[in-house]
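Sorry to interrupt, but I need a hand with the structure work. Could you write out one complete protein record for me, on any chain you like? Just paste the record in under my message, thanks.

. . .
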Amino acid sequence: MRPSSDSRTTSVNQHAGSQPTPERAVAGYVPKSLRLEDWAPVAEFARAVALDVHPADCRAAVEAMRTLSQFIVWAHREGLPLDREQVFTPDVVSRYIQVGCSHLTEASRATRRSVLRRYGTTLTAKAPWEPPEERLRANQRIVPYTAEEVGRLQEVAKQQRTPLQRRRMQSLLALGLGVGAYPREVWHVSTENLLERHGQLCLAVPGKQARIVPISTPHDATLRRIRDEDPGSLILGFTAADWDRSRLSRLMQYIELPPDCPPLRLSRLRVTWVKGHLEHGVHLGALARLAGVASWKIFGHVMPFMAPQPEHEVFASMVRR
């Protein structure tokens, strides 16, 4: 039977002389669209989970129970134990959206997935959820990696246990530090986008900001090896659904980052690439074209971290013709 959002809340407004609360809404929730034999084994677990996402009011509590009841009953049918760390994981949520929500529109599936992802990050401590990116205020900046941090990231990439894990992390670093690709671009480029121009290995980046970018060393060697070993494949060796808002989390799920490893952020890789080329004297206009920028905002992130130049060298370069 097709699930629906209909439900009965038997005790929300039946407490004479007392104010309805989210706790009472959760306790009194009974999903109308689920069979009792499916709901009964998971009801206590679902209610405990709903309270721990801290709904602000009765309406939010009912909405949480609607979403959680459908998801948890589905997970229980799939044979998963009623354990938060095993139910609320990126893989389980993604499979539920693909298999258990096929009757919903794409927009509704995306909304439900976003809600469950938010619940997952709240309810678990070990599940491999990617921490949400902080919303940048006008005075916040994306900080480039230092040379020491870049070195540590490259070292950790080489130390991954399996060839696939090493490929994924090394190619991610190559596309960020060697190409300066936008985060949205790294998921779609393949070895067929690699080409030679002016004696350099380059990446033909497709999309709205289509461009050909020379690949900085040592990352050109990484991408050339991937092309030789697995021609015709996606460079990351990973296929991501376009609607998936946690693609980096899924890619990184089996990659092991030790405590001393810097957090891996695609936006930081890109601004580190920009900073490196500016410090090597690449023409600003040419760099903007190769970066595919529509504004100068990225340079604002980089400028406070540029290495200072001696004044006499700056003056000499400004009067030289």
Notes: The CA atoms of residues 5 and 161 lie 44 Å apart. The two ends are 78 Å apart (CA to CA). DSSP finds 15 helices and five strands in the chain. Confidence is low (pLDDT under 50) at residues 1-17.
